[in-house]
Write a structure and sequence with these properties.
With about 200 residues, the protein is mostly beta strands. It contains no helices and 11 strands. The protein has strands spanning about 10-15, 25-30, 45-50, 50-55, 65-75, 80-85, 100-105, 110-115, 125, 160-165, 180-185. Strands 2, 3, 4, 5, 6 and 7 form a 6-stranded antiparallel sheet that branches. Strand 5 (about 65-75) and strand 6 (about 80-85) form a beta hairpin. It is globular, with a radius of gyration of 17 Å. The protein starts with 11 loop residues before the first strand and ends in a 17-residue tail after the last strand.
């Protein structure tokens, strides 16, 4: 039976590893004023030179967590402004940086949409979103990326596929667009080893 999902939704927080308390807490970080890449709610992000940028430009990027909205003082209206996503470029009043909120618990689990049928034997491997700039809705601000089945790897990619999300309308692993649960595999906080592709930048 086909799954009901028709497009991706990035990453949505869903409990924690080991079913420990899931506060879905988030940290406050900065996006450099005028940064030129859209970051949608549910986009995997990382820290580079002190600022939050996409972690989806390469499938082996380390990841600090998932974007969950932004705040800035609008340069035109001068009013405090909240948004679900960073609609580039944004340069706030007085050229200050944009504050962003990142779900940054390294043990956080997330639901995501798999872009193709994934055999049970492929669970436990690692996946990423296809290497590209994030995509999403400029109405809702929600990311629309799906996990890339083709480029799965035993160890090298950002997210480890744990199980299906047991979403009744999207639980057919023999069809594309299954909702699945993933955990961090390449986390900047935990894997600053100096190895190419997983360094703190």
């Amino acid at each position: 039976m086909a799954n009901r999902n028709t497009q991706g939704f990035g990453l949505i927080a869903q409990g924690t590893v080991g079913s420990t308390m899931a506060s879905q807490g988030q940290g406050k970080y900065l996006i450099d004023a005028g940064m030129g890449v859209d970051l949608f709610q549910g986009t995997a992000v990382r820290s580079a030179a002190g600022y939050i940028v996409t972690a989806q430009a390469a499938i082996t990027n380390t990841c600090i967590g998932v974007l969950n909205g932004i705040f800035y003082n609008d340069a035109t209206t001068k009013k405090p402004t909240f948004a679900n996503f960073y609609n580039q470029p944004i340069t706030p009043a007085n050229s200050e940086d944009v504050t962003c909120f990142v779900i940054d618990n390294p043990l956080q689990l997330f639901s995501a949409c798999m872009d193709a049928a994934a055999a049970q034997a492929e669970y436990g491997k690692t996946y990423s979103f296809a290497a590209a700039v994030p995509t999403g809705s400029e109405i809702s601000g929600q990311c629309t990326n799906k996990l890339d089945y083709t480029n799965r790897h035993i160890t090298n990619n950002q997210w480890r596929l744990l199980r299906t999300a047991e979403d009744p309308e999207n639980n057919d692993i023999a069809a594309a667009n299954t909702t699945v649960i993933v955990a961090h595999n390449l986390n900047q906080y935990l894997q600053n080893t100096g190895t190419a592709g997983i360094t703190w930048q």
